[in-house]
Design goal:
Strand order of the largest sheet: 1-2-3
CATH superfamily of the largest domain: Intergrase catalytic core
Number of domains: 2
Helix content: 40-55%
Number of strands: 3
Structural class: mainly alpha
Strand content: 5-15%
CATH topology of the largest domain: hpI Integrase, Chain A
Shape: globular
Number of helices: 14
């Protein structure tokens, strides 16, 4: 019987990073999930140990993620090919939850700006504005590293801001700000705020100005900053008469995707702007923002 041994976190992290190409935030959750699983003192050769853990967490919000976490752990840990395949084939995949609407609320550009203007925190207004103009994930904006915002000439005349984004799976994405208001606000922020040694938007202090007790844990610090942005956004949504259950930080990206589609009607342009490696993911964004066969219906009903 193969019992769990001391968890070699570093090697597992490297496996997830190199073989699975996961983002650092996902690696953090995978390590947490496996650590929680190993605390049950499981028999690593027993399918029952894995499935019992999945079943016990089946009602949790991230139940589907536990399947992915244990699948990756089995692939990493079990060297016997026959046993590994047996465990993977028998691993229970929790049913997809349907309590969250597949089609998300779409807000046009003016409505988005209305929400952004109702954010209390200056930093959060700037993050929301960057999201709205570029379609970048909120978490990726929070993690913009120092030195990755640079001024650049556009067509030899106008200065624009070049933002280097390190996204999921460490994918590098470059986006540009042409909007003069956004450029002015961002330059002012960069010049007058020094919240963190490495990142422009991560503050190490709480709302009362006291240092956060994050003990050097980047993800604890990141999660605090992300939650503060989300809490501010929820209050702004309420002020605008929008139920926060219908809109979240990632919907800024979905709304951007729909606006790009409505202008260019080109899936390859949209895929490039969202920095997706798979066009199927891009199509899913359009469906979730309410665009499903919309052009076909338009052609059928108006021509």
């Amino acid at each position: 019987m193969m019992k769990s041994s001391p968890f070699d976190v570093g090697f597992f992290e490297e496996y997830l990073r190199e073989k699975k190409n996961l983002a650092e935030s996902s690696i953090h959750y995978y390590v947490q999930g496996v650590s929680r699983f190993l605390k049950t003192d499981p028999n690593l050769e027993s399918l029952e140990s894995y499935n019992t853990f999945i079943i016990e967490h089946g009602i949790k919000k991230r139940s589907g993620q536990y399947y992915s976490i244990l699948k990756a752990f089995i692939e990493y840990k079990i060297s016997d090919g026959n046993l590994r395949n047996k465990l993977l084939d028998g691993l229970i995949r929790p049913p997809e939850r349907h309590d969250i609407k597949v089609e998300r609320k779409f807000l046009n550009e003016n409505r988005i700006l209305d929400v952004i203007s109702n954010l209390k925190n200056e930093k959060h207004r700037l993050i929301g504005l960057i999201q709205s103009l570029t379609g970048v994930r909120a978490g990726d904006v929070l993690r913009i590293a120092r030195g990755n915002i640079q001024s650049e000439r556009y067509e030899g005349k106008e200065a624009v801001l070049r933002l280097v984004i390190i996204g999921k799976g460490k994918k590098r994405n470059v986006v540009y700000l042409h909007d003069r208001v956004a450029i002015g606000l961002l330059l002012n922020w960069v010049q007058n705020n020094y919240l963190h040694d490495e990142y422009y938007f991560l503050t190490t202090k709480n709302r009362w100005g006291k240092e956060l007790n994050h003990e050097g844990d980047f993800f604890k610090l990141y999660n605090y900053n992300y939650k503060q942005y989300w809490m501010d956004l929820k209050q702004a949504l309420n002020k605008c008469g929008i139920d926060p259950k219908d809109f979240a930080t990632h919907d800024m990206r979905r709304c951007f995707a729909r606006r790009v589609w409505e202008r260019y009607k080109d899936i390859h342009v949209l895929q490039s702007m969202l920095n997706h490696s798979d066009p199927k993911v891009t199509l899913k964004y359009l469906e979730q923002s309410g665009l499903k066969n919309v052009d076909y219906h338009y052609e059928m009903q108006t021509n």
